[in-house]
Amino acid sequence: MKSLLGICLLTLSTFAFSTFSPVASIDINGTAKDMVLTDNKLVIATDMGHIEIYDSTSREKLQEISIPDVKDFMGDVIAARVMSTDVIGEQYLLLSDSGKGGYSDLYLYKNSTLTKLLGPEDKEAIIKARFVDEGHILLGYLSDEVALLDIVSKKELYRTQLSESKFSDFMLNEKKTESVFSCESGVLSIVDVKSGKVIKELKGQNVDNVYKVDFKAGKVSGAGQDRRGSLYDVKRGTGSYIEGSFLIYGTALSPSGKKVAFAMDEKNNISIYSTLNKSKIALLKGQKSTLNVIIFQDENRLFSASDDNKIMVWDLNKK
């Protein structure tokens, strides 16, 4: 009798979830490559040489910031692909492909002025950049190195080699004191932002490349090429995973860390789970292309960006 009850409860937890469609969408000029949400500003990086800034509540476009065109390997002038962006106060970061030797351009936009912090002459292959504070930027290198850049001096305060694997992604915690880095090996490194030292390694749940990570409320989630959506308790160093049916390209944690989102199947649907018991809460259907970024604005409202020109808006309170 007890075993039958257990099977029934497992069946209910597996199938008792709701399906949601987008409540709105935002059309952008270009393909979305990165996206951040800070202080009600939704900032989207595109492959057309600019970022677009929206009010996340009204979805009104507030601003567009462009960077110079570049030349490709054939010598043709093209729009720079903005790979990474961020915002703090009225400052914006734009990290792009310089078109020269695989090296990066890093721009700071402040007081209506665009300043280049790094260019191809610096020979830096940077994949992702995020503000730590108004004077410092955390950098993730293709070579799986982490560096802290001083904006005024344009000098790195440190650079740490995390592994011999190729870099995939990083995410700062809410206080921006620690960051989680992922790479092709499946091992996640928790880094002290101030010193660049590796505090802890999280491993055992992914055995291949972890495309994306998130870090909230003392938890880390990882989107794996091995079809595993990993979950870790950072303090304890313990983890588990949820099995997907396809390569998992995106993940996000809710502000409380009680919910996690994974792109779990080949149809680009987003699955929402409880991090407490890994039960499926919701399925978000309507994404048309491969996901790049998922962001929780609060416990029920999400934004998602994929390899197309539409940002999807989701609300778990509205079907």
Summarize the structure.
The protein contains one helix and 31 strands.
Describe what you observe in this structure.
The longest helix has 14 residues, at 2-15. The radius of gyration is 20 Å and the shape is globular. It has one helix spanning 2-15; strands at residues 18-20, 24-27, 32-38, 41-46, 50-55, 61-66, 70-71, 77-78, 82-88, 91-97, 104-110, 113-118, 126-133, 136-141, 145-150, 155-161, 167-172, 178-183, 188-192, 198-202, 210-216, 219-224, 228-233, 238-243, 251-253, 259-263, 270-274, 280-284, 291-296, 301-306, 310-315. The chain is mainly beta. The two termini are 37 Å apart. Strand 15 (145-150) and strand 16 (155-161) form a beta hairpin. Strands 1-28-27-26-25 form a five-stranded mixed β-sheet. A four-stranded antiparallel β-sheet has the order 2-31-30-29, with no helix packed on it. A four-stranded antiparallel β-sheet has the order 3-4-5-6, with no helix packed on it. It contains one helix and 31 strands. It has one domain: Methylamine Dehydrogenase, Chain H (7 Propeller).
Structural descriptors:
disordered N terminus, 5-stranded mixed beta sheet, 319 residues, 4-stranded antiparallel beta sheet
Show the helix and strand layout.
Blueprint: H1 2-15, E1 18-20, E2 24-27, E3 32-38, E4 41-46, E5 50-55, E6 61-66, E7 70-71, E8 77-78, E9 82-88, E10 91-97, E11 104-110, E12 113-118, E13 126-133, E14 136-141, E15 145-150, E16 155-161, E17 167-172, E18 178-183, E19 188-192, E20 198-202, E21 210-216, E22 219-224, E23 228-233, E24 238-243, E25 251-253, E26 259-263, E27 270-274, E28 280-284, E29 291-296, E30 301-306, E31 310-315
Parallel strand pairs: 1-28
Antiparallel strand pairs: 2-31, 3-4, 4-5, 5-6, 7-8, 9-10, 10-11, 11-12, 13-14, 14-15, 15-16, 17-18, 18-19, 19-20, 21-22, 22-23, 23-24, 25-26, 26-27, 27-28, 29-30, 30-31
